[in-house]
Amino acid sequence: MNQLTYLSYFLFILLGFINMLASVVLIEIAASFQVDTYVIGYCLALVSLGSILAIPLTGHLLEKISQKRMTLAALLLVTAGAGSLATSSSWPLFAAANFLFGCSNGMLLSIANHIIVHLYEAQARSVRLNLLNFAYSAGAVSAPFLGSFLVQRQWPWQGIYLLALLLPLAALFFTYNAPFYRLYRLKKSTSFPAAAPETYWNLRVYLAGIALFFYVVSETAFINWSVVYFRQHNGFNLADASRLLGVFLASMAAGRFLSGFIVRYIRLDWFILASSALSVAFFTGILIRNDYTLLLPLTALTGFCYSGLYASILSYGTLQLSRPSSQALTFFVVMTSLGGMVGQFLAGFIKQTLDVTFCLFFSLLMMAVVFLLILTARSGKAHE
Questions:
Q1: 233, 356 in Cβ contact below 8 A?
Q2: Rounded CA gap, 96 and 140, in Å?
C-alpha cells in the first residue's frame, strides 16, 4: 500500500474517534449545559448537516484544486471544530461547534473515499473500502473505553476533546509529507476524454445510495443512544454501558478487517443480504434481553454483522458504473451524511416524545429496510 492509502486510513481513524466521543459522554454534556439529553442529540445532528453541505463542494473542488491543499484545509477545520467543542460554554455554542466540525468531517470523508476509489478497482476497491471503514472503527472503538476511563477519573468532557486534538495535528504532519502527486499522475494517465458522456446510472445505483442512507440512520441511532439506553433502561453504570458500546465497535472493527477478505470469495449482494438479516436477528436479542452476560455476545455479534455493510454497499453501488465517477461518489457520501443527520434528528425526537427504548427499535427497523432495498436491487427490474 502506498502512503496515500495509509493517510486515508489515518483520516478515518481520527474521524471515528472524535465522532464517537459525544455518545460516551452525552449525559455529562447535557448535565453541564443543564438540558435534557435529546437537546444534545439535536446538536449532534448538526455534524451531519455540516457534512452534507461540505461534501458536494468538496467533490467539485477535488477536480480543480490541489488535493493536498484541500486535505490540509480540512484538517485545520477539524482542529478548529474539535477545539470549539472543548471550549463551548453553552449548548448553542456547542451546536455551532458541531456544525463546524461537521463541515470538516464531510471534507475528509470525501477526500479519503476519493483517494481509495481512484487508486483501486473491482475487488481491490471493495477490500480497501472495508479496510478504510475498519480504520474508522479502530478510532471509534477507543472512544468508549478512553472516554469512560477518563470520566471516572474526574476528567471533564471538555478535556477529552482537547486530548483528541492530537490526532488532527499529527494528520497535518503526515499530509504535508504525503506524495499526492502520485494520485494526480494516476488520474491523468487514466482520464477519459472531456467529451465522454457521463456514465449511465441504473436503478441499482440509486437503491445502493438509499440503502446507505438507511444503514447510517440505523448505525447512528444505535451508537448515539445505546449507552443512554443501557444506563436508563437496563440500569447499568457508565462503565458497563460504555463497555457494551465498546464491544459493539470492537466487533465492527474486527468485522471490517475480516470483511475486506471475505468479499473476495462471496458475491457482494449475498454478503450484504446475509449481514443485514443477521444484524436484525441479533439486534432483536439485545432488545428482549436484560442479562449483561447475554448482552455482551449479542452486542458483539450485532456489531460484527453491521461491520461490512457500509463499505460493501458503497462498493456495490460504485461497481454498477463502467468507470469511477466523482458525481456518483459524491451522491453516495451525501446519502451517508444525510442518513447521519436524519438518524440524529429522528432518534432525538423519538427520545423527546417517547422513550430511549424506541430509539433502538427505530434503529432495528432501519436495518430491516436495508435488507429489503438490496433484495429489490437484485431483482430483474432493477437490472434494467
A1: yes
A2: 22
Burial (Cβ within 10 Å: 0-12, 13-18, ≥19) of residue 127: buried
Phi, psi values for residue 271, rounded to 5°: -60, -45
* 183-210: pLDDT as tens digits: 655 555 544 444 344 456 778 889 999 9
Give, rounded to a whole angstrom, the gap between the first and last alpha carbons of the chain: 37
pLDDT tens for 52-104 read 888 888 877 877 777 888 899 999 999 999 999 999 989 999 999 999 999 99
Q: What is the pTM of this model?
A: 0.72
b/e map 288-318, b = 16+ CB within 10 Å = eeeeeeebeebbbbbbbbbbbbbbbbbbbbb
Which residue do the cell numbers 446510472 mark?
Answer: 201
